[in-house]
Request: fold
Amino acid sequence: MKLHRTLLVLLFAAACQPNTVSHAYARLETSPAALDFGQRDVGSSSSLGLTLTNSGNRTITSLAVSLEAGTRPVFSLSAPPATLEAGASVTLNLTYLPAEEGADGVTIHLSSDADDPDVRIAVAARAVRPSATPDAGADAGAPDAGEPDSGLPDAAVPDSGAADAGPADAGRDGGFTWDGGNSTCPGASDVRDLSWLPDGGRPGAYPIVSWTGSQLAVTWTNSAGPLDVDLTFLAPDGTPTGVTRPISPVDNIFSALANHAWTGSGFGVAYVDARTSPHGLYFTRANASGVAIGTDHSIPQAYRPYLDHPNVAWNPLDSEYGVAWFEADSINGSIYSVGFNRLDQTGAPAGLSGTAPVLEPSITVANGLAAVVYLVSNATGYDARVAVFQP
Reply:
């Protein structure tokens, strides 16, 4: 009887012991459960993180990721590790870079050998145009002394917003600044008096300027005595270099109304001259130093006694000059026309290309074609027109 009671106690004790046998498993959990970028600017890149955690007790050994069902290719996702230990976490970065406006979406597909082998995460986003933001209103330099700006955005760095929030900057935005010189012209830098001429204060008229690549060249009418045409050089900032060369003969004969063209190695100068009666058109070449070279050439196609506004252009394609001029039957004449002539590289006339009953010509050359802009009178005033000549 005693033995039986002891056996029952042992059986009862064995039945109360806990079960210590465990099951191996892997569970892939994500945080957050979904991703939403909200509204993002077109052209801007932004990223969100997706954290993966193995909450099981065994290693995930075949983790892979892919993007499915995207509306357009604007998402990219960093690659996960191939394995994820039990209890470990890793964060993947999802990047959104839209090129155009619109709603976007994609599904992140996580596949593995976890107990739940397929996990999907929904992603949403919307691309919008950046909102316009006015600039701070402060220009790069101190206010210049010119006339106030019109309230439009700065020309130097265009913005898409409203006008400057700060005070008007008093001059031309984004370019020219007032240098404190003697200029009386709003928006200009230093203005230099034409009295820089060598013998001090000789009066001048009809200046025409060109850029040689290293300095400024000015042809002008020297009216200190009998009119003649000179060529003067200035530094890039307008400072006189002290070099002035005569272009027309210094012969006490009227020479004036010059215009010139820079060829890249020298100058071609056309001007009105009284060597003939009535006045005629003459053409002189000068080297890069302004020294007259070669022979003066008369341009014979000047039909009327009053000549004005000779205009010169260089045609590098055909190595020749184009000259246009205005002529009339008198200084207050009623009969007007514009002449045009081609000159070879020595300045010799290469043949008349055209005349027209018009006035005030201006000429330029491009791709071997000479374009002459001129005025034509009508019942109420003048019309501007252009004629194109080819060799």
In short: The chain has a mean pLDDT of 74. The CA atoms of residues 184 and 213 lie 27 Å apart. The domain at 194-389 is CATH 2.115.10.20 (Tachylectin-2; Chain A). Residues 2-15 form the longest helix (14 residues).
